[in-house]
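Reviewer comment 2.1 asked that we show a complete input and output for one of the modelled complexes. We chose the thiamine diphosphate case, as it is the one discussed in the main text.
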Amino acid sequence: MSDKMINGALGMLKVFEEENVDVIFGYPGGSVIPIYDKLYDSEIRDILPRHEQGAAHAADGYARSTGKVGVCMATSGPGALNLVTGLANAYMDSIPMVAITGQVKSHLVGKDSFQEADTTGVTLPITKHNYLVTNPDEFVDICREAFYLARNDRPGPILIDIPFDISLGDVAWTDRDIKRLDCYEEPKPVDDELIRRAAEMIAQAEKPILMIGGGIIASGASERLFELATKCNIGVVHTLMGKGAFPETHELSMGMPGMHGMAYAALALQNSDLMIVIGARFDDRITGDLQKFAPEAKVIHIDIDAAELDKIRPTQLAICADAGDALDKLVPACKPRDKGPWEDQLFAWRKQHPLTYSMPDEGIAPQYIVEQLYDITGGDAIVATEVGQNQMWAAQYYKLDKPRRFLSSGGLGTMGYGFPAAIGAQIGNPDALVVDIAGDGSIQMNQQELTTAVINKLPVKVIILDNGYLGMVRQWQEMFFDNRLSGVDLTGNPDFVLMAEAHGGVGLRCADPDKVRDTLQQALEVTDKPVFVDFLVSKEENVFPFIPAGKGVDDIMFD
Amino acid sequence: MPNIHTLSALVKNRPRVLARVAGLFARREFNIESLAVSTTEDPAMSRMTIAVDVSGTPLEQVRKQLEKLHDVVTVMDHTDDAVVERELCLLKVEVPAEKRPEISALAEIFRGDIIDIGNGTLIVQCIGDTGKIDAFIANFREYGIIELVRTGKVLLARGHQKT
Ligand SMILES: Cc1ncc(C[n+]2csc(CCOP(=O)(O)OP(=O)(O)O)c2C)c(N)n1
Ligand SMILES: [Mg+2]
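Response of the prediction step:
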């Protein structure tokens, strides 16, 4: 141990500087005042959301869009508990985050003290790891470990629960030496023999298909994936989390499979004889009925998390490795391969089963709005989504050619995620166009963050597909519960235009299909404050295609 | 049919490590048959010997999920290894004085010890592998077991093999 001492809060902020943290999304309270006191003099920007859930999602959106570790902070008890959904959300989607929570003084822990909650207990199953700091000698290295663990291996959120006396008092300062950290692991080389066998299986396959997920984005492996796909002319389907990892406008992009995916993506997987799955985890929203899922396909599964291999779908070849490291070796190991009858078939399916919708008699088609947004922005926006039908239409109709442009709650499906995530993304990417494709239900779950966007002059565009319903639930009730609509009517929604204006933002409304483009243009011209656009869409529009939960591709519904 | 495997996990001796392991088993619906936690030769480490029923979840999945926990250092499956495995059982039976010799003889068969004589009760201790303890308990059933406790098994690999 070193004999240098430093104030606890200051030591933590010094580690943040080592880690290039430039912003903290945090909300103060008694137990974190010592940290706020040191932030007062710090270069690190602090953003004050209006609810701690907003802080967590903003840190997540910042992380997804920049690739850096997002940092959020809250006080003990209620503050920490308000982070919970945001942590679970980041954990499910493997997003690198560090959450700082204040805790009551060490000697008061476990005594039901004022604003005490068992934060590490509550967050244990929804963080990659968490710490309750008990020893001031370990604190500085715990902060370093948190960043190391958040970003290395399979990324995820790490929480550090810091008693008041630790941040207020002195702690040991040690010099930075990552290799000395308890959690440090030497990178493991990718097994050449496994790569050789993968290349051989690819060479022998007649009907290969790539299925890629968020692991490609986390690893920064998009370019190497592109090399593999184009060298071997293999079609690429992507999961929701993998959206943008391979250019969706490319000839080889075969879209998104799954419950609301493209039929041609589902057909591609279903009829393949080899699935090369990289950084994806066979979520039930992708596979449906496992017994019926791509029964003829052999599987090569590459994932950094050994526990994902053979967890859901047995593999013929499992490679536990970082996606980029594996692709580094796999690309040169594979022989170039020409397109053949299989690829002709893939492209024919894509022609036969395009996404379709029709213009409704009343209200605007929500799909049309997303399509026009895509057209006007040239596909060049960072797109956050809420959850529900809006999320699926965003995934279907806003094509992305670059990674880190799609911010959507994949694993947890958290309504209210998109708006604060968009705020975090705008802070991390000040010059980018950031939109949140929202539902009228979801937006109300974190609408208080309008203030955060106004105060920080963030021109986030919130495109509300306002159908007056909790649309996705209504769709399920219509299709599987005899249209007995229960608890889904949002009559009595606030006036979203006035709401935006009341906070100091811009509010626009559009009910006319012919004015969609103009309204979007108008929204895009705002550069210094958030915009809410209330699009009155056709109320009973459903998302298609649709493979009902637990069913297979044969059960796909087109309308 | 239960399919019991015994895992030995070396874990960091940190707060909540037991909660982390137990929580993992609970939320992933892995079935724990028995769990013994103890200190080791290294004060920074604890050892958890976990007998797990893998009829529902493949053993590999249990092992890999355990290994993912940051405080878990190594996980070994010793099911097919040469190991010494032991469990300790205490059981209390109601015994009238005239039956004591009979009980004593039965305990002897299992190399058990009578370690307490109370007011018409005896506590018998037995040490052995799980099969032996099961047989020990079965044989005492007819005398009316009042209370029973077993430690769950612990094991060490034989020779120079690491546990
Ligand atoms: C926090 C949370 N609560 C409930 C749900 C369940 N849920 C999924 S979609 C949905 C409806 C969302 O309504 P809206 O935001 O209006 O979107 P729409 O489907 O109408 O586009 C609900 C309630 C959820 N995903 N998240
Ligand atoms: Mg709605």
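Residues 17-27 of chain B form the longest helix (11 residues). We note this here for comparison with the apo prediction described in Section 3.2.
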